[in-house]
Amino acid sequence: MKAVALIPARGGSKRIPGKNIKPFCGRPMIAYSIAAARDSRLFERILVSTDDEAIERVARDEGAEVPFRRPAELANDHAGTDDVLVHALDWLAGQGGAPRYVCCLYATAPFVTGADLQRGLDALQKAGAITAVSVTTFAYPILRALKVSATGRLEMFWPENRTRRSQDLPEAWHDAGQFYWLDVPRYRAEPRLFSSDSVPVPLPRHRVQDIDTPEDWARAEAMFQALLPSPS
């Protein structure tokens, strides 16, 4: 196999119950990630790793495979994505179908597009890296960041930057939380999504939103609706 998409989607979300299949702008949240993977035409298989029967039903309805059930020890709040990936890769290897490339695509990524996924694979292959990570820029220079002291007063994390102009400070990036491409043989030797051999896949800030709280959800729906083309 050339490439496989793997969508981790456990049940049991506490802050947004049923988050992975909750209706988002009229469709189950996970449907957007599955659709982007299908639209990209990059993948021989689109797999969902879940411990939840309801997520399994929705994923199958949307066109993904759910060929195994994620074990309980990888379905709690402390299970890391790398552990989930290694479990899925072990299953694929046991089926005689270990792919060269895997794209770990989060279930809560309604802004991701097939073109984004293609750029990610291109970046991974061009750089010869272990992983390619979707990222976006911080809107404000992080070296001018503030904190609240124990006495309730504002302080700078790095006071030496107090008088430096924002345009003179280096641009900073953060994980967009949408997808990660893996060169599987090399990732198996060092199973970490982030390493010294990771390359960026830049995304615009207006298509990046963490969805961890009800407020995040409402913001993401408003952003998504703003991006939709207006009816003619």
Helix-strand blueprint:
Blueprint: E1 3-8, E2 23-24, E3 27-28, H1 29-40, E4 45-49, H2 53-61, H3 81-94, E5 101-105, H4 114-127, E6 131-137, E7 146-148, E8 154-156, E9 173-183, H5 184-189, E10 198-202, H6 214-227
Parallel strand pairs: 1-4, 1-5, 6-10
Antiparallel strand pairs: 2-3, 5-9, 6-9, 7-8
Task: Describe this protein's structure.
The chain is an alpha/beta fold and 232 residues long. It has one domain: Spore Coat Polysaccharide Biosynthesis Protein SpsA, Chain A. The strands form 3 sheets. The protein has a 6-stranded mixed beta sheet, with helices on both faces. The radius of gyration is 19 Å and the shape is globular. The mean pLDDT is 95.
The multimeric state of the shown protein is single chain
- How many extended strands? 10
* Percent range for β-strand residues: 15-25%
Output the CATH class name: Alpha Beta
What's the mean pLDDT score?
A: 95
Number of domain units: 1
